[in-house]
Every structure is written in C-alpha cells, then in structure tokens.
C-alpha cells in the first residue's frame, strides 16, 4: 500500500513536471502546491467589491490591458523603477487603470499560504473572473500556470497594442485579430463595458460632435462633460446608463438605441456596412445567455494570449517588482 502510494505520487509528479514543461495551462495547476488559491482570490475580491463595487470592473479591465500588451504576464503590474518607464505610464493606463493595490493584497494573502509558487499573472486572471462573477456575470474555470514577465513593455508598445476609444469598427477588428481574437470575440468582450465608468476626455467628442448618438442621452452626458478640454476632463460617467455596476447585456441594449458611451462602443452598431457587428449586437441584446456563453469563450482565449509557461519568466514575489 505504502509503495503503491509512493509510485502513484512519483508518476503524478512526473506527469505534472511534463505538463508544466510542455507549457500548457491547466485548471489543476496549483492543486497540490496551492489548493486554497481560488478561495483566497474569491474572498479578497468579495472584500474589495464590498468596499468599492466598481473595483470588479477595474480589475477586469486591468486583466485586458495586461493580456493585450506582451500577453497575460502581469507586465502591467511592474512599477517604473531604476529609470525604466513601463506600461503603467502608457497613455491608456496612466490615471485610468486602477486596482493595483487589490492585486497586492491578494498576492500577500496567497504568498502567506503558498510562498513563491503562484504567479501574479494567474492571480490577476482569477481576480478578473471573480470580478465579473461578483457583479452578476458568468463564471468559468480558469486554466492556470502563467508565469510573470521580468520586464514591462514600453509606453509606446502598450499604446500601439491597446485599441483607442476613437477606433472604427474595422480598427477594432484588426486590433483584436492581431491577438488571435475573432470579430465575434471582440464584440462579446466589448460587453465588459456593461460595468464601470469612463472619463469625459474619452467620450467628449462622441457626445458633442457626433451624430450616431441618441439626442437625450447626449444631453444627459453633456451635463457633466463640458465641450471644451480640459474642463471636466476627469469627470466620470457610467458606461451603462441603466445598470451601472451589474454585469448583464445592458451594453448591447444601449447600443441598439444609440446610447453607447464611447465612439468605439457605438461603432459596433453603426448603421450597417460590411464590417457591421449590428446583427450580433441585436442577438446579444435579446439573449443574455448567448452573450454570457460567448463572453466566457472569448475571456478564456484572451486569458491565454502570449502566456509565459514552463521555465520562462519567473514567479514574482512582489507583483510590482522583478525578483532581486
Ligand atoms: C474594444 C476596444 C476597447 C476600447 C476602445 C476600450 C476603451 C476603454 C476606455 C477609454 C475606458 C475608460 C477609461 C477611462 O476613462 O479612464 C474603458 C474602461 C473599461 N474597459 Fe474598455 N475598452 C475596450 C475593450 C475592453 C475589453 C475587451 C474589456 C474587458 C474584457 C474592457 C473592460 C473595461 C472596463 C470594465 C472598463 C471600466 C473600468 C473602470 O470603471 O475602472 N474594455 N475602456
Ligand atoms: C484574503 O483572503 C484570506 C483567505 O480567505 C483572508 O484570510 C484575508 O483576511 C483576506 N483579506 C482580505 C483583505 O479580504
């Protein structure tokens, strides 16, 4: 019996070593080395969201901005140190992306239970799943085994890889296509804009200068976002005018009545043309389950963009710093 268990452990260890070396992500990656991981992340995300419900949205966006720049390798979490200016300082991130302290808190809890084994990239991926779920969205199994970057991208590389708020639908399709994501994935992932907020500077031209927008909605948003920069640049407005912090298909319902907040949002329902995503927007707006199912498929794909596995990268002790 003793030796049977011993051999079983041996083969299990061998199998795990090989699957790690093959570099595939797996839902059981930390089953032996950190069995409490998902509970810690869930508990700590519950605490964070109880304090500030928007944090569920902010962490989801943090994961997206990580994955689109060098892959899901927690490179966005690296602080600017020693003269290296990284992703945090990139235009789409600075004074905009939030939630870094929440990841620090989760990482500290995880390190105290299982020191040195769980990557910041995996923690962020789990936290984004939990943020989605805790705001009322779908849940899914997260494949794990990502490792952490040892260097961030430059602000310019980050800027080039993150789609801007003034993108056309064609540009959105290209930006997501560059990451191996289909137009359908892009349309489903954009539904994340059913939660959270944007700053006036990112939707000013859409509400003041454009015509593909509901007039009463434009007036509502104009009331807190003055026409001329820099007045009110940082003023926040919710993406979803109906249910601001509930993860549902409200985003698509809004687009169908031209109440998208960003130019890029409304581009998904822009009155037709060969690259129109309007048919899909109509389907999602009428079928929450279809949206959730497609969102999960696309989140799994996004979460595996450019991952470091096997012996690549490292397991950072502190998500803000490369190990000494
Ligand atoms: C399709 C291209 C996309 C563009 C152009 C875009 C652009 C933006 C912009 C401009 C903001 C507001 C930032 C600010 O004003 O500080 C924002 C917020 C947000 N984005 Fe996106 N985004 C896109 C796709 C995504 C995707 C794929 C996700 C996640 C799956 C996502 C999740 C979020 C969330 C949750 C927020 C609100 C964050 C908060 O309230 O803290 N976005 N996005
Ligand atoms: C994080 O989770 C752990 C394990 O559930 C718990 O002991 C700790 O108090 C939590 N911290 C916060 C801030 O929720």
Q: Could you walk me through the main structural features you see in this protein, from its secondary elements to its overall organization?
A:
The protein has 324 residues and is mainly α. It has 2 domains: 37-161, Peroxidase, domain 1 (Orthogonal Bundle); 169-302, Peroxidase, domain 2, CATH 1.10.420.10. The protein is built from 14 helices and 2 strands. The chain has helices at 2-22, 37-51, 55-67, 100-113, 120-134, 155-161, 169-177, 183-190, 204-209, 215-222, 250-256, 263-266, 278-286, 288-302, and strands at 197-199, 236-238. It has a two-stranded antiparallel ribbon. It is globular, with a radius of gyration of 21 Å. Mean pLDDT is 94; it is low at 14-21. Residues 54, 57-58, 60-61, 64, 96, 98, 163-165, 167, 172, 189-190, 192-193, 195-199, 202, 262, 264 line the site of protoporphyrin IX containing FE (HEM). Pfam families: peroxidase (PF00141). Heme b binds at residue 193. Its main location: secreted. It is found in: Secreted.
Topology (SSEs and partners):
Layout: H1 2-22, H2 37-51, H3 55-67, H4 100-113, H5 120-134, H6 155-161, H7 169-177, H8 183-190, E1 197-199, H9 204-209, H10 215-222, E2 236-238, H11 250-256, H12 263-266, H13 278-286, H14 288-302
Antiparallel strand pairs: 1-2
Helix pairs in contact: 2-4, 2-5, 3-5, 8-14, 11-13, 13-14
Bound molecules: protoporphyrin IX containing FE (HEM) and 2-acetamido-2-deoxy-beta-D-glucopyranose (NAG).
Enzyme class: oxidoreductase
Family: Belongs to the peroxidase family. Ascorbate peroxidase subfamily. Belongs to the peroxidase family. Classical plant (class III) peroxidase subfamily.
Site (Transition state stabilizer): 61
């Amino acid at each position: 019996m003793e030796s049977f268990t011993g051999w079983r452990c041996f083969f299990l260890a061998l199998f795990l070593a090989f699957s790690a070396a093959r570099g595939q992500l797996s839902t059981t990656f930390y089953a032996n080395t950190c069995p409490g991981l998902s509970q810690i992340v869930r508990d700590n995300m519950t605490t964070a969201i109880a304090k500030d419900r928007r944090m569920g949205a902010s962490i989801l966006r943090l994961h997206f901005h990580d994955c689109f720049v060098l892959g899901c390798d927690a490179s966005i979490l690296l602080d600017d140190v020693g003269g290296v200016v990284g992703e945090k300082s990139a235009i789409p991130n600075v004074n905009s992306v939030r939630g870094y302290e929440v990841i620090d808190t989760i990482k500290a809890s995880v390190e105290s239970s299982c020191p040195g084994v769980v990557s910041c990239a995996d923690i962020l991926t789990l936290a984004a799943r939990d943020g989605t779920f805790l705001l009322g969205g779908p849940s899914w199994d997260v494949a794990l085994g990502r490792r952490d970057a040892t260097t961030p991208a430059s602000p310019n590389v980050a800027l080039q890889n993150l789609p801007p708020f003034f993108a056309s639908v064609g540009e959105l399709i290209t930006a997501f296509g560059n990451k191996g994501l289909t137009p359908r994935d892009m349309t489903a992932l954009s539904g994340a804009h059913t939660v959270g907020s944007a700053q006036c500077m990112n939707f000013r031209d859409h509400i003041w200068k454009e015509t593909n927008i509901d007039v009463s909605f434009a007036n509502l948003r104009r009331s807190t976002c003055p026409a001329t920069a820099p007045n009110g640049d940082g003023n926040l407005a919710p993406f979803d005018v109906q249910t601001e912090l509930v993860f549902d298909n409200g985003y698509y319902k809004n687009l169908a009545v031209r109440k998208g907040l960003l130019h890029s949002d409304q581009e998904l329902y822009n009155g037709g043309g060969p690259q129109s995503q309007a048919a899909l927007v109509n389907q999602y707006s009428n079928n929450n389950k279809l949206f959730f199912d497609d969102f999960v498929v696309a989140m799994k794909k996004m979460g595996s963009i450019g991952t470091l596995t096997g012996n690549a990268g490292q397991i950072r002790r502190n998500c803000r710093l490369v190990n000494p």
